[in-house]
Amino acid sequence: MKLHRTSSSPGQLPPTATDEPRTMSATPDSRRSPVRRFLAAALVSASAAALAMVSASPAAAHHGWDGFETDNLVYIAGTVNSDGSWGEPHSYFDVDLDSELPTHTPELEIPEELQDPEDSVRVNAALAYPGPNNELEVIIAPPAWSGRWGLDRALNIGESFQAVGYINREDAGLFRPVVFWYGDDNVAVNQVLGNTLPVRAPLPGSDPSDEDESASVSPAPDPLETKTPATDATTAPATAAEDGGTWLVWTVFGIVIVAAVGGGVFYVRHRARQGGVEDA
User: Considering the entire predicted model, what is its pTM?
Assistant: First the structure.
């Protein structure tokens, strides 16, 4: 194989492709495309953060009073059999039901919030849970409310538990009380706002047509969806923790937005300067 050499003057390098004049300039579209991608990514990140905050809002729809059979108060009794969760937006745990229950609510202390005769008579008349489950998951108001009403801690496994409340319309294994009693001393804990039951349904065995319509419907707010102010020492720690968590979430969200916008501005200026240098 013969190698062909190019002729050149002594000391002169052979011509190369770099000796040819060339120009490079980024088109507006090529400069904007990475910027658009960056801003789109920042927007997606901010949207994801906002969605996470919305998802952490107080209670899922089926946990509100409307998701339960509020026309049928039932009485349950048993023992706590799980650690469950003590926190926001609600607390929950499992209860093993006693094999034998009284026909209706036994004589227990009625909390002040439910001592209106229209409410207390319905709590006392609640019939025993008829089954079929031997265990129920119990959902109660968050610490900010339950602490205000007499429960400032998570219930312990093995602790006795009695309650009057409702079965969920979609999940027959989910129970939400309007009042419950815990421990050997049967400490009463209210679970409603507005000093009234969510619904004043007809009493068991009564004729619904005989009920006073004004006493049947109650516009009671829901403690799972209502923020409580720190009005006393019992609720102050829980509410402060809740407010602190909210402040932290918004702070992080704000930092993400500022970082995204600042990074976008910096990137745009950097690309613009780079494009100007290449054009020159």
Answer: 0.59
Query: What integer is the mean pLDDT of 133-155?
Result: 95
Instruction: Return the H-helix or E-strand segment holding 96.
Output: strand 91-97
| Exposure on the CB side of residue 115, measured as CA atoms within 13 A | 8
Q: What is the DSSP letter of 202?
A: P
Strands 187-190 and 174-182: antiparallel
Check residue 154 and give its pLDDT: 95
pLDDT for 229: 46
Look-up of token digits 């998701």: 67
Position 32 scores a pLDDT of: 53
- The per-type count for the chain, helices as H runs and strands as E runs, is 4, 7
Determine the Cα–Cα distance for residues 146 and 68; give it in Å rounded to an integer: 20
Peptide bond preceding 111 in cis form (omega within 30 of 0):
no
User: What b/e readout covers 62-98, taking b as 16+ CB neighbours within 10 angstroms?
Assistant: ebebebbbbeebbbbbbbbeeebebbbbbbbbbbebb
- Decide if pLDDT at 213 tops 60: no
